[in-house]
TrEMBL record:
PANTHER family: BLR6086 PROTEIN, OPINE DEHYDROGENASE DOMAIN-CONTAINING PROTEIN. It comes from marine metagenome. InterPro entries: NAD(P)-bd_dom_sf, Opine/Lysopine_DH, P5C_Rdtase_cat_N. Residues 5-107 form the Pyrroline-5-carboxylate reductase catalytic N-terminal domain. This is Pyrroline-5-carboxylate reductase catalytic N-terminal domain-containing protein.
Length: 148
């Protein structure tokens, strides 16, 4: 039984490690990638898991949904973790904006004040009462050794 559903927006090193860790502790995971970077999630789409190798834990981490469709990903969960470099905050906000609701909580990681930009763009899509937070840095030092 999962603790909660979480949508991870992004397909890079940190996005994969956060997705794997959250899966390992019992959460149900969706990964949303921007279509421009679709190849970064191809392998996970095929296997349905991320293989985690690390100090804390190892092994496959289940991913319930991998998608390039923001409407599908935002319907999956009300908790959205935007885990992309700062230059991708705006493209992701524009990509997901039409599907955001006041029920969503967005956490920008790493933030670099990206929460301010994300909030402003959400308001442009008519969602001015959304909760947007950020963290200063990524929670893990990590790297991808493969695409899955």
């Amino acid at each position: 039984m999962s603790e909660r559903k979480v949508t991870i927006m992004g397909g890079g090193n940190t996005a994969f490690s956060v997705a794997a860790r959250l899966s390992h502790i019992g959460n149900e995971i969706c990964i949303l990638e921007h279509p421009e970077f679709a190849e970064s999630v191809d392998q996970i789409s095929k296997t349905g898991h991320i293989t985690l190798e690390g100090v804390m834990e190892n092994g496959p981490a289940a991913v319930s949904l991998v998608t390039l469709d923001p409407s599908e990903a935002l319907a999956f969960s009300d908790l959205l973790l935007l885990i992309v470099p700062a230059y991708a905050h705006r493209p992701f906000a524009e990509f997901t904006g039409p599907y955001l609701t006041s029920d969503h909580t967005v956490v920008v990681m790493p933030g670099t004040l990206g929460s301010l930009e994300f909030s402003a763009l959400a308001a442009e899509f008519g969602v001015s009462d959304i909760t947007v937070a950020e963290v200063d840095t990524a929670p893990y030092v990590c790297r991808k050794t493969s695409e899955g």
